[in-house]
């Protein structure tokens, strides 16, 4: 089957779907499935905009609300993970995954589903060591700390995914697995993104948690986004035993969804022709969720995953064949995910804007139903319970008023990993040191092809990934017709704003113990947000 893979969507659903439809009209290529690797921005209303970790000037409604309201429907089944620019309050309603709109499915904090026999897994968010060992304690209304920590990856999700034993066909993460750049054309990557050099050379670019999952799961395909550059790599995994067959992962990072960007990739995936066209639960994943349910943590307290170190009575939570069989029997061998999408918040009405709408903590009926069916803990219900108990003790308000950790991440706790962007720990993870020549990276089309030297038959290994010739490249510009002139003008104004951002240096946020006040800081996603001091609510 043909799978379309997209990078950071940034709410531009109409552009993305129009591009797919144009691809079909011009070249008779119709994807069976669309995967989005984060920064999807499922924004329903003005309150959701307040829950996106971007400066107020970049909080645009975009077009998701039209799909949420039912005005439009996604023309192809869409499965996505969360990134670091999301309506966190909306996605938080679905910690185990669920429908955010008809035909648009969110994988949750971490999740695995099946489509036509293909196993698709993913983990949402980005890695930050100082939040990695905490529970999912955040809930709206967020403060300046929790609006960011809400999308930080947690060790419990990585632990759950590492319990999987059966092969994974496709895996998605927002940030790249650390070290993956060593398995592709690293020199061309640095030519296109020269300001990555320090992190690449120190091997601190990307997520160590994602790297751990890559080495453990060894999926056939791994798709990522976040860095706004197209990059391919090929990793040959070492076998853990003589009996294990050699495995390899084809890695592909996608560009963001903007005009003149090659932000979509079509991949041919082997599938089960006898399987239905419905999205399905994965029985092994459900069994793992049931096994690890007692480990749910909704506090800020640091927590270490169970290990075989003499401190834990149990450390293996992988699913047995009996447990998987029980899941199948519970579902009467019908794994189809119910189409039980429900509106849980008012939808944006352009004729009646509500600029002062405030976010609320919501229990989503989909999550309630899912937890009841499989005997799982509703994380949001547990958070609400914890808040009520804290209020009775009188300490919840005190917790909210604790000194907030600055956004640079300087107040780090011990991590399972030795480093969190070594040498850049005093800088926001989305910022990077640059010299005077490092500008304008988001204004150029960045496309990095696989290196012919990793491995020698690298190009052959990607024969199932359709690298379209120039005559078949379709950008979102092509998908705009006369009815979309307003969107086009909006895109042009954003490009002008991006240029103005690139022309002025961004100042460091937070102190510099070394006194290097002359060093300029620039964010990787500069077109999305400006300096940290502008990140204030309206």
TrEMBL record:
Its main location: nucleus. Gene3D superfamilies: 3.60.21.10. InterPro entries: Calcineurin-like_PHP, DBR1_C, Dbr1_N, Metallo-depent_PP-like. SMART domains: DBR1. Residues 416-428 have a biased composition (Polar residues). Residues 235-380 form the Lariat debranching enzyme C-terminal domain. GO terms for cellular component: nucleus. This is DBR1 enzyme.
